[in-house]
Amino acid sequence: MGGGTPSTDIGPGLGAFVAFFALALLLWLLMRNMNGRMRRMAYTERERVARLEARDAEARGRTATTGATATTGTTTDSGDEPVSDGDPATDPPPRGDDDEHDQSGAHNR
To answer: Closest Cα partner for 52 from 89, 100, 86, 78?
Structure first.
């Protein structure tokens, strides 16, 4: 009695397969969603940088045509957004919707 090899008739079964398949499917959906969000963020960032560069180029063009000299730090042109001098240490933080939200996305006001 009882001496031989253990029985191999019992396995993980259909329930384990379904659970594993569900986890794999959820992981695939999560990765697909994350990939789309990352692409959207990269696209938005490229557009934001292009707008900033265009604004800076326009400001430099206005400065060059008026004959004004650039000063250190930031300057403003007729109350518009501050113009960067290219030095991150002296540039002000960007203005706009970001002022109303902190880093975590919570509303500050």
So the answer is: 86
